[in-house]
Amino acid sequence: MKICCLNFLKNNCKIDSVMLLFALLLVGCTRVTQNTDFSPFEYKEVYLPKLSPEGSIALNLNNIDSDWGIWGHNLSVVLPEKPSSNVYAKSGKIVNRDQFCFSSEALFEYICKYIKTNYGKGKPMRFAILPNDNSVVCLCNKCIECGNTASDASGAVYYLLNRLTKQFPMHYFFISYYRTTCSLPKTPLPENAGVLISAIFFPLSSCYTPKEDDFMALLNRWSSYTKRIYVWDYINNFDDYFTPFPVFNIFQHRLRLYANAGVKGVFLNGSGHEYSTFSQLKTYVLASLLSNPDVDWRPLLRDFCKQNYPVTGDVILDFIVKQENMVEKNQEHLSLYEGVPVAARTYLPSDDFTRFHNKLLKLLPKTKGEERAAMEKICRATMLTRLELNRMASDTIGCKKMLRELEKLSSDEIVAYSEAGGTIESYVSDYRYMLRRADETWGNNLLKGIRLVPLTALDEEYNDISILTDGLLGIPSCYHSGNMLSSASPALKIAIPHVPGMTCLRVNMVRNPIYHISLPLRVVLTMDGHEIGNVVPTPNPSALHRSVAEFVIPCNCHGKLVLVVYRDENDRTMALDEIEGL
């Protein structure tokens, strides 16, 4: 890997077009492993798919694959094929292999052997000594002596961390401030130790929010214990990698805060190796902001688009700037897990997006080479956004058109659209099923367009009950799409209006174990408070993520009909789909 010596970002200055173009023309200049003298951060990473060697820029970024011996919640990498059971968490005599015992001598020896074997010589490396991402804590006698409690593993993790820093003084070891390790140490950390602090509870906003004070206070508290504070932050909507997600104004604000607080490292967690829309230009602009949080990102974006997208660059630039302006104007924070309906209210100007997408499709045949390859990916990915906008407008004709357009484009690099692994294939399959059902029930669904009346409070983010009677099934593989989630306890109650000729009520439900969305325990229909039907939902044999409960409406029914849906309280939520009257 070549090392490029171009330090093209300096404090309080802007990159001019000449310098940028020079950087773009450096052939074979991949990720730079040495840090610029001018950046406030010693560690900088944008966790998105890497730029191609031909179009790479001297970004001067770090990389978890080459700069960390152990990264994230991956301590299990040190274990042999058949490790001693002593490495696992214990509660009394019960061994829990979902978590580690951080006071274990066997675990310490495994880590030491792993480091000596793989990193005994060469450059200093970083090692994340993190518990697995769950709430399990080891409560063996030794861990309790170290300070562990039923909900806090910090004591034993600090014990292991201190041992490793003494054993390997040339390497760096990091604890996390996250879940079961949210207690500050009793004494300052060793010089070759640091902390990874998750910004998960610091809302993504381009302006001040009250949570900012809390996070900055946390950074300040940690500054008394270590000079090596790294922030683990987030730059994607992890439920939707494909809908354009604006982050430049937001991270200019955040990175300035981090620099002023003395933060030494920033890991910007994105889609990783999976494709996400605009990942190349995001990598470039965010890398520039990491090198200088005060740099004006708009000229950087304009020049990147001009250099890399000669045919489509102006269209892309215009849309991204409109998104960024919308976020800045609305002053709302962005969620890391949301669907297109929420995006349309906060950062996705729907009409502008539709015009943007149509222009890209029109310009696509005029593109060549690398621009053509990039635009095919962008067009293909954002067709899923178009599908959802059409579904929100009950535009089945538009949905069918987008599916046909989607079939014309293909890319082996665009597979998963979400962190949970939802694929385009499953998404499209669910859409086709939904459209077939819409055609079959056309004119037969007597509740289509009829507004139902909730009798219990709806969840704040899922309070649009109209989607239950819009005539379109939801998408099981994407819980945001056409489904109304509810965490009502013990049950959600909905009044069903009388419609002439309705003799059957059909309640569609979906489940998705990945997101802890389960089927209701039971669904009951009452008339004037008296039960007239009781169904225990089971998965559909031919569509395992769907279930249907059907009820017969008594002839000449004039009483008050109420649907009562009991939630399985062992799971987070349930999802109602379409409610149909036949």
Spans of 5+ residues with little confidence (pLDDT < 50)? 1-36, 53-57
Broad structural category: alpha/beta
- Would you tell me the overall average pLDDT? 89
| General form | globular
The largest pleated sheet is described as: 7 strands, parallel
Strands side by side in the biggest sheet: 1-9-8-7-6-5-2
Strand and helix map with partners:
Blueprint: H1 17-24, E1 43-47, H2 64-67, E2 68-70, E3 88-91, E4 94-100, H3 105-119, E5 126-128, H4 141-146, H5 154-167, E6 172-177, E7 193-198, H6 210-222, E8 229-234, H7 248-260, E9 265-269, H8 279-291, H9 297-308, H10 313-330, H11 340-346, H12 350-363, H13 369-392, H14 396-408, H15 424-440, E10 453-454, E11 484-486, E12 491-496, E13 504-510, E14 522-527, E15 530-535, E16 546-552, E17 561-566, E18 574-581
Parallel strand pairs: 1-9, 2-5, 5-6, 6-7, 7-8, 8-9
Antiparallel strand pairs: 3-4, 10-12, 11-18, 12-17, 13-16, 13-18, 14-15, 14-17
Helix pairs in contact: 1-9, 7-8, 8-9, 9-10, 10-12, 12-13, 13-14, 14-15
What does this structure look like?
The chain has helices spanning 17-24, 64-67, 105-119, 141-146, 154-167, 210-222, 248-260, 279-291, 297-308, 313-330, 340-346, 350-363, 369-392, 396-408, 424-440; strands spanning 43-47, 68-70, 88-91, 94-100, 126-128, 172-177, 193-198, 229-234, 265-269, 453-454, 484-486, 491-496, 504-510, 522-527, 530-535, 546-552, 561-566, 574-581. The protein has 582 residues and is an alpha/beta fold. Among the domains are: 17-75 and 118-320, no CATH class; 445-581, Jelly Rolls (Sandwich), CATH 2.60.120. A 7-stranded parallel β-sheet has the order 1-9-8-7-6-5-2. It has a 5-stranded antiparallel β-sheet with strand order 10-12-17-14-15, with no helix packed on it. It has a 4-stranded antiparallel β-sheet with strand order 11-18-13-16, with no helix packed on it. Helix 1 (17-24) crosses helix 9, helix 8 packs antiparallel against helix 9 (297-308) and helix 9 runs antiparallel to helix 10 (313-330). The longest helix has 24 residues, at 369-392.
